[in-house]
Write a structure and sequence with these properties.
Elements: E1 2-7, E2 12-19, E3 23-31, H1 33-37, H2 44-66, E4 75-81, H3 85-102, E5 106-110, H4 111-117, E6 129-134, E7 139-146, E8 149-155, H5 161-171, H6 178-188, H7 211-223, H8 230-258, E9 263-267, H9 274-287, E10 290-292, H10 296-299, H11 304-315, H12 335-338
Parallel strand pairs: 1-4, 4-5, 6-9, 9-10
Antiparallel strand pairs: 1-2, 2-3, 6-7, 7-8
The structure holds 5'-O-[(R)-(carboxyoxy)(hydroxy)phosphoryl]adenosine (KG4) and zinc ion.
Length: 340
């Protein structure tokens, strides 16, 4: 089955063509980073308007890059939620109109299901595994028993990891989005002996808190006698990233052990982080767990990631009607019931 997959939940418009939920024929992303950078974060209305402008030409380009035409498409998969409602509605409305015009089925899928299953586009990872979703909106640990089969084990009680990266970068005057900038500084320097707290690490659960870490950085900056110079800023960035990586990796490992899982899949924008990848690789050696990271293009928001679940559902006869609506909040654990 050849599917068109569309993603517009936040600040990337993405269109992909995927065969059989496995073979990526094209995977194009139109980023809005420059549009939002001046505001230091995503402005929802601007995001929706930009999605509207680019989605049609992007889909045409995705088809021509894949070497297929509209008539070859057998279904459409689109992010239904969670995300910014106005942004989601652009993708959902486009998918509905396109599917109706071509008389093919369409299905709305969960953005985080896309992230977690993206790895299956590169290699077959057997279920069950521990799914770590780390992005701008999520820091969630799931037991994954298959497509549509998720059990929440732990989650952030406040900010998501990516959100904390972005906010700390803003405090340090580093620009937006902050994750990649902090990652580069941390990779090039060291923490200069600065240590930030690791919230919730001692707690006997698998939840996270990143808001306290962010406040610790702010307090550190306030205590400085003069404004931080470039060297100090890069040391703070490095110390912050080390603390985030420490908490994520340790809690993940504990959750995997508690669930008796020896496979871990890390996904979402923060899974691009080189420190996180390095630390997990070290833990793989010491713990004997297999840790999988999709390639960076499949970690950040993209269309192809949605086709794994989309193909599975459509080929089993599930599809969405023309009454499909976008949802800003949608617990991943619920998707199984939603497709029954
Ligand atoms: O999955 P994603 O592209 O969009 C959401 O679903 O949120 O994730 C975006 C987040 C942003 O907060 C961004 O700063 C973060 O992922 N990010 C990173 C890196 N690349 C992107 N965080 C840390 N290190 C990176 N290299
Ligand atoms: Zn995402």
């Amino acid at each position: 089955m050849i599917l068109l997959a569309l993603e517009s939940s936040c600040d990337e418009t993405a269109a992909a063509v995927v065969r059989d939920g496995r073979q990526v024929l094209s995977n194009l992303i139109s980023s809005q980073v420059d549009l939002h950078a001046v505001y230091g974060g995503v402005v929802p209305e601007l995001a929706s308007r930009r999605h509207l402008e680019v989605i049609n030409p992007l889909v045409e380009e995705a088809l021509s890059t894949a070497g297929v035409n509209q008539r070859d498409l057998e279904g459409i998969v689109v992010t239904r939620g969670p995300g910014l409602v106005g942004a989601l509605l652009v993708g959902v409305s486009f998918a509905k109109a396109y599917a109706y015009a071509l008389n093919i089925p369409m299905i709305g899928v969960h953005h985080i299901e896309g992230h977690i299953q993206a790895i299956q586009l590169e290699k077959i990872v057997e279920y069950p595994f521990l799914g770590v979703a780390v992005s701008g909106g999520h820091t969630h640990l799931y037991r994954v028993d298959g497509i549509g089969r998720y059990q929440l084990l732990g989650r952030t009680v406040d900010d998501a990891a990516g959100e904390a990266f972005d906010k700390v970068a803003k405090m340090l005057g580093l620009g937006y989005p902050g994750g990649p900038i902090i990652d580069n500084l941390a990779a090039a320097g060291d923490d200069g002996g600065i240590i930030f707290p690791r919230p919730m690490l001692k707690k006997n659960n698998f939840d996270f808190s990143f808001s306290g870490m962010k406040t610790a950085v702010l307090n550190y900056l306030h205590r400085l006698e003069k404004p931080a110079d470039d060297l100090r800023i890069s040391q703070i960035a490095c110390a912050f990233q080390t603390a985030v990586v420490d908490v994520i990796t340790q809690k993940t490992l504990r959750a995997a052990e508690a669930e008796n899982l020896d496979r871990i899949v890390v996904s979402g924008g923060v899974a691009c982080n080189s420190g996180l990848r390095k630390r997990f690789a070290e833990l793989t050696v010491s713990s004997g767990m297999d840790v999988f990271f999709p390639a960076p293009i499949l970690c950040a928001d993209n269309g192809a990631m949605l086709a794994v679940a989309g193909d599975y559902y459509l080929s089993r006869g599930f599809s969405s009607g023309l009454d499909l609506n976008a949802v800003s909040n949608w617990p991943l654990e619920q998707v199984r019931c939603d497709y029954k």
